[in-house]
Write a structure and sequence with these properties.
With 472 residues, this protein is an alpha/beta fold. It contains 17 helices and 17 strands. The model is unreliable at 1-28, 133-137 and 390-410 (pLDDT under 50).
Length: 472
C-alpha cells in the first residue's frame, strides 16, 4: 500500500507540470505566422516593462514570427530591469531589433545593445547611461564606481555579441571613458556618450558607428532589414496587464493570505470571512499570473480539482486521508508551477535557474504562513476578533439542551471542570459543564459533539479545553 501511495504522490506532483507545458499554445495572441512583432517600450524602464516584453516575445516565438522589434521611447530607468530585458533579448530564438523612436536614454541605450539591429528615427538620440539614484541625483562616487564596474562589463559583453563596438557600451555608462575610433574622437573623457540619429549611423571604416539606418516608419524599417514581405503585428499591453505585473510581484503575499485564510476557514464550521479572504487571495494570485503570461488555465483547473478532492473526502469519507493528501499535493503543485516561466518554443530545462523564482516565492510564503498560523493558533482564540469571525456563525448540531440548562448559560465555570461538547468543536463551539453551557475553544483539535472535554484555562469569554482523560 505504501508503494501505491508513493506512486500516487509522484503522479499528482507531475500532473501540473505536464499540463503547463501546453499552456502557451492556448494563450497565444492572434499573431500571423511569420509576422514582424512590434512591441512598445515607452516610459520608464521597469520590472513591469520587462514582464510585458517577455510575454510579447514569448508569443512571437510561439507564432514563428519573422522578427521582434522594440519601438523605443524611454528616458531610462532601472538598471536591474534593463539587465533582465537584455538577457531576454540575448536568449531570443528570433531576430531582434530596436527602433529608437525617439529616445533611448540611459537604460534604454543599454537595452538596444541587446538587439541584433538598431535603427533611428529622423529626430532621435541614444546614450547617457550613467547610474543615478531614485531621487534623480547622481550616485555617490564609491557607489557609482561599483555600479559602472559591474554593468559596463555586462553591457560590453552584450554589445560585442551583437557585433557592436564594446567601447560604445562603456562610453554610454562611464564618463571617464575616452572613445577614439580610427583616430576620430567619438566621446571625450569627462562626458557621457550620447549619439544623435545622424551620429549613430555615421560610417567609420565602412561600418556604421552603431545604427544601421535612419527610417521614417516601420514599413521602411522592415524593407531595409529584409522583412518587407512580412505582415506587421503591433503588440499593445492592456491596462489589466500592467495591474497583473504588480500582482505577480506581490505573489508571496497573496499566497500567504490564501494559506492563512484557508487554515482559519478549515478550523471553523460553515463558510465565513476567512474563506472569503482565502478565495480572493488565490483568485488574485492565479489571475495575475495568467494575465502576465506565466500560467494558463490548466493550473487553475488542477487547483480546483485538488480542492474538490479534499471536500469529497471531508463529506463522504472523513478520516480516510488519501483523497486529502492527493488534493493538497495537487493544490501545492498548481501554485508552484503557476510561478514557473514556461516558453512554448523552447524545451523546458529542469534546473535551479528555472525553478529559483518559484521556489523562493513559494518558500517565503509557506515559512511565513507556518509562523503566522502558529501565532494565530496560540493567541487568536483569546481575541475579540476571533469570536467575531467564528463564534457568531456557530450552528448547534449536537443534542438539544433541556430548558433548565438553557436558562443557566451564564453560570460560572472553573479550570479543571469536565463537560460534554454540545456542538462540533472546529475548534470553537459550545460545551455543557454540569448545568452551565459555555463557549469553548480547543487548542487546535477537532472534536465531535458528545466528546468529553476539560477546561485548562479561561481566556476572555471563552474556555480553552482539551479532550478529557477517559479515566477521569
Amino acid at each position: 500500500m505504501r508503494h501505491v501511495h508513493r506512486l500516487l504522490i509522484l503522479i499528482t506532483l507531475t500532473i501540473p507540470f505536464l499540463l503547463t507545458q501546453n499552456t502557451y499554445a492556448k494563450l497565444n495572441l492572434p499573431i500571423p505566422n511569420g509576422a514582424v512583432v512590434v512591441t512598445p517600450l515607452h516610459g520608464e524602464v521597469s520590472e513591469a516593462q520587462f514582464l510585458i516584453l517577455r510575454r510579447a516575445l514569448k508569443n512571437a516565438e510561439a507564432a514563428n514570427a519573422r522578427a521582434f522589434i522594440i519601438n523605443m521611447d524611454t528616458p531610462g530607468g532601472s538598471l536591474q530591469a534593463a539587465v533582465k530585458i537584455l538577457k531576454l533579448l540575448l536568449d531570443s530564438r528570433i531576430p531582434t531589433c530596436t527602433w529608437v523612436n525617439t529616445n533611448a536614454g540611459s537604460a534604454g541605450a543599454l537595452i538596444a545593445l541587446g538587439t541584433q539591429q538598431i535603427f533611428m528615427a529622423p529626430v532621435s538620440a541614444i546614450g547617457a547611461a550613467a547610474p543615478i539614484l531614485g531621487t534623480g541625483q547622481d550616485a555617490p562616487q564609491t557607489l557609482s564606481e561599483k555600479i559602472i564596474s559591474y554593468y559596463s562589463g555586462y553591457f560590453r559583453s552584450a554589445a560585442e555579441r551583437n557585433g557592436y563596438n564594446p567601447e560604445l557600451a562603456e562610453a554610454f555608462i562611464n564618463k571617464d571613458k575616452e572613445l577614439i575610433i580610427d583616430g576620430q574622437t567619438i566621446s571625450p573623457k569627462g562626458s557621457l556618450l550620447t549619439l544623435s540619429a545622424q551620429e549613430a549611423v555615421r560610417t567609420i571604416n565602412g561600418k556604421p558607428l552603431l545604427a544601421k539606418a535612419i527610417v521614417q516608419n516601420l514599413q521602411q524599417l522592415t524593407q531595409i532589414a529584409g522583412w518587407e514581405n512580412a505582415p506587421i503585428y503591433e503588440f499593445q499591453p492592456s491596462g489589466m496587464e500592467v495591474i497583473a505585473q504588480w500582482i505577480t510581484t506581490l505573489a508571496p503575499l497573496f499566497l500567504l493570505g490564501g494559506i492563512i485564510g484557508a487554515y482559519l476557514e478549515f478550523k471553523s464550521p460553515g463558510f465565513g470571512i476567512p474563506g472569503t479572504i482565502a478565495a480572493f487571495c488565490f483568485l488574485m494570485f492565479f489571475a495575475g499570473h495568467y494575465i502576465a503570461g506565466l500560467t494558463g488555465y490548466e493550473t487553475i483547473v488542477i487547483f480546483i480539482l485538488g480542492l474538490l478532492l479534499i471536500l469529497f473526502e471531508t463529506i463522504f469519507f472523513p478520516g480516510l486521508a488519501i483523497f486529502s493528501i492527493l488534493g493538497a499535493l495537487l493544490m501545492i503543485g498548481s501554485l508552484f508551477f503557476a510561478m514557473i516561466d514556461f516558453w512554448p518554443s523552447r524545451p523546458f530545462t529542469l534546473n535551479w535557474q528555472s525553478l529559483a523564482p518559484a521556489t523562493l516565492n513559494f518558500s517565503l510564503a509557506f515559512i511565513t504562513a507556518i509562523i503566522a498560523i502558529s501565532l494565530l493558533a496560540r493567541f487568536l482564540p483569546s481575541t475579540p476578533l476571533f469570536h467575531f469571525l467564528f463564534l457568531k456563525t456557530q450552528t448547534a448540531t449536537g443534542p438539544s439542551l433541556p430548558t433548565s440548562h438553557k436558562s443557566l448559560i451564564d453560570k460560572k465555570v472553573n479550570i479543571g471542570d469536565i463537560g460534554v461538547a454540545t456542538t462540533p468543536l472546529r475548534p470553537t463551539g459550545k460545551a455543557l459543564f454540569g448545568v452551565c453551557l459555555a463557549d469553548v475553544t480547543t487548542e487546535g483539535d477537532f472534536l465531535e459533539a458528545g466528546s468529553r472535554v476539560q477546561i485548562i484555562r479561561l481566556e476572555g469569554p471563552s474556555a480553552i479545553v482539551i479532550p478529557a482523560d477517559p479515566n477521569s
